[in-house]
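Record pair follows.
FIRST:
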Amino acid sequence: MNIKPAAKAASQPRAEAETTKSKSRAQNTKRHPEVLSAQVKDILSVLLVFRFINALCVRTFFQPDEYFQALEPAWSIAFGADSGAWLTWEWQHQLRSSLHPLIFGAVYKAAYSLMTWLQFFAPFKAGILVALPGLVQSVFAALGDFYTWRLASEIYGIDSNVPWTALWMTVLNPWQWYCSTRTFSNSLETTLTIAALYYWPWELLKDAKVDKGEPLRSSSSLNSLRASLFLAAIAVLLRPTNLLIWLGVLIFTVLRFTLDGASAIQPAVLFKLGREIVICGLAALGISVVSDRLYFGFWAFPPYKWLYFNISQSLAVFYGKMPWHYYLVQGIPLLTTTFLPFALIGLYKTSLSFSHYSPSKTGLTTLQSNILRTLSSTLLLMIATLSVISHKEVRFIYPLLPILHILAASYTLNFFAVPSAASTPPGAGGSVTLRHKLFLANLLSINLLLAGYLSLFHQPAPLSVLNFLRSDFERLHPDSLSLSLDEQPNTNTGGQKQQQQQQQELFALFLTPCHSTPWRSHLVYPALHARALTCEPPLDTAPGSVERETYLDEADRFYQKDSEGRYGVDFLRGEMWPLIVGEDGQRGGEVPRYIVGFEGVEGLLRRFFEEGEGSGMGVRLERVWEGWNGVFNEDWRRGGRLVVWGTGRG
């Protein structure tokens, strides 16, 4: 059973002195269990509604992993190998666990079956399928907020104001609004991690001299440990780097580095802990292995493949290198935004200055102090380890954000609130009075502006262009809107010929940096054939070899500049539409109905089709759609509007 340090503080001996008035106040503020249960349900319900709205409001593109590591394999699970899903090299070489896409694949399949039974028309079904993953992820996002509040309540006490501050911080954090409802594996990993930390038996950190009871004796405490370990194991299987968090928790729990008091972990407790780690780990591993066997069709162990390709073969650096201080200078500031000063203070107070963080100086119990120190030390351990790895992304430390909120909550509260009674500390229960209101208003305004801009106006075109293409396909090919090969809209010979012709048409060609848009999760229809530039890594080259250093993927070759400083021309005439051998002036390669690209490629396209080598192909470019893509973009290749040009073909 989990310990509620602040709630139990009045009923157990304390190492630190506590005033009679504080004890009386803690006893008088205890609530009836039914009131607490109703409060928990209300909070969860509100968070579910809030994140549901959040998911509907996120209309922008962030990173391709949101789609290609989750929704494309999920689409393949739901609608089959011939559904047109784009499975990247990571899935072809079994680097990813199938557990994450399995969630969305099951939801896709169930929703489509229900809509088919209800005989909804195809465009409506397509719209639902496009929006569905975000709505599913909103449930996980709400649970992440919920367990952040619950863990803060476990540490500070349910009657304290600090857990409510932590809840407000996670709700008002722009990063959370921008990313928590996206279908990243990191987003699910974050929820699994904070839920596992909530169920972790923090009683293991108590001072054995003060509380002589043996931990993990009750069945409820063991069940809580099992829930924690199982959730943690799933998180590790999804993202192997999550293991660093649990190694940190175990190290600081068992060895008690930086912690106060005598250890309560005797050999019998250590045996129970080890036994449950093995049992829960094997249970989660068994589920994962069976899932991967069913998905890949053979036995596979993705964590090993992930380590082999990313560590042994050093393929992660193919997607970018960052300096060692990236997480300190950019990662944590991006996660916490305007709450950064309070997060830094929380980290400093709990982990970098142990001599100044003794329970007697903070008003916390030894157990509370030890929990906060373990969390902060684990956070720093993970950041230090990941900083050694060359390839870095903010998402990789996303699971640490709830911990940062909890560490910063008490200092945020103390800065912006004063207690109603002069003798009552701000973190205690009861009403408070706000101070620094202008500063608080500015802080919240910045958060709202950031969240609004990023979710509505920063890179919306990669999503809206697919809505245009899908809608236009529905208009042009109303008889090719099936998602199942078993469904045949036309049984007459003429209809079958027309459908075969439509399925062979290259509807859209994307001349953009690879994975600049989602794919089948938004294009939906298997008959809507499209092609995009690829960026497969050099799998068959050795680390440090000349072949590895000089390797250029398809997108790199397209954007490679020639001797005249132009890019794209050599690629178009040499790879996309090369000359047919023996036929002077004739070029091979299929011409699409539409070409999609950012504004910067329009000049080279017009030169190629209207003045250059492709002038005899009969292509006459015409803008048929264009979408604004934000005020700025960090990648020059994605600058300007996203445009769809009609080719006059089809």
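SECOND:
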Amino acid sequence: MSNQLTRRLALLDDDAHRGLLLQGLRGIERETLRVDGQGHLARTAHPVKLGSALTHPQITTDYAEALLEFITPAEHDIGLALHRLDAIHRYAYSKLDGELLWSQSMPCELPAEKDIEIAWYGKSNLGMLKHVYRRGLALRYGKAMQCIAGIHYNYSLPEELWQLLAEHEGITEERRNALRDFQSESYIATIRNFRRYSWLLMYLFGASPTLSTGFLRGREHNLETLSDDTLFLPYATSLRMSDLGYQNDAQSGLRPHENSLESYVTSLMDAVKRPYPPYAEIGTKKDGEWVQLSTNILQIENEYYSTIRPKRVIRTGERPVQALCARGVQYIEVRCLDVDPFEPVGIALETGRFLDAFLLFCALEESPLINAMEGQVHARNFARTVKEGRRPGLTLTRNDHEVLLKDWAEELLERIRPVAELLDHEHNYKGAHMDALNAQKAKVADPDKTPSARVLQEVRTLGSFAQFGLRQSKLHAEAFRTEPLMPAETALFDEMARVSLAEQAQVEATDTGSFDDFVAAYNSSTLCRNS
């Protein structure tokens, strides 16, 4: 362990500070496609019984109209967040009228591009802004890409913990906003360590080694054929996170600097403001209809597809970068996790326990700045793992040397072990985090235990990516439908749906000004007040 990690662990293990680790927050966002009973993309509108996709706090849509997104409240314990996620699934199944929730990250069999509906949020200016943004995504990446699903893991440590670390490391409040800046830069340091080590998450939790042949829409690829409807790579862990996923040429050179919050924000601001000639040729309107919000590299800052983001809860009318500039980083959002097709809610409790240990390790461990060449190495290690992570003898680059992925993974798990022990000690979880860590150690020792290997084996047995996805979707649906929510829980969700529909109606009734003016004001808004 580094001196910093040893020192910080000892500080948090002190009797006076042990309660701090109980005060962090966890939240999950799970994306999932609605499909029909044959495993084809649902062509129906977002079910009104679920509420408004624009204003509902827990049930919305993401890119495609059929891509549901379930959002848990932030909880102090990941177990409780997963319980909330389970309840959302059970409620959704009570309103789906025979449709299923797709069990995999990579999409089901999709119709022609023209027949994939973009998410609709109503006729208000705000709703149209969200819809036109997605029109732009369809233009830039294709509609099939808008059907990919993932798990987002939101993670924060309490402000009191950052304050404690700041005080013990000589940071005082003499300088204005010193503690806020320490917290922000500590989260940015956490993200740098995540960049160094996130290949490990792809090996341990990647679950998309196969995909439907039709997904690629004729694109060139180096995948192998498993069957008429299935492509794969034999040692892949996550094709979703490979270059086949949500990427394009415009973003290929975009590498926001994460050596400081200021450099990160500046690089995103530049991409939102910088024109991209191929998009400029298209323009923002076609035949009088909006087709994208701008002709710049990014329409809005959230278009940058990253494996992890610094985040701040935004206020009404505020942009994400404005919130970061004004009040600093509040939490981080891990975005690289595949949906686990063996888990009804898409993620296991054991996975959450390990993520908590992994992210706390990233937060407490030393995190030197990353230069451009090092950044390329980290990206290459990640890319190698998602396409070849289970290949025997696979090496990654560390400190200018090639090391076996297996050896590095074992070393990294041992470095995380004291963090898992601390979490178990502080939380009185009776070894839950250590059990989760040991389960990951078993995957490193035996690649056949990884989700990607298990998925590939099941798909080989069935002979079809689609058949495996449909089988798992039906199994999960049966589990949720045979144990519905209690009436009181259902009533709470019903009320949430009713309120959300009323809120959307209110937004639409009180709208003023044209959509053109609304977009102009949005695009011209000062991204950072101190810029």
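COMMENT: The longest helix spans residues 405-427.
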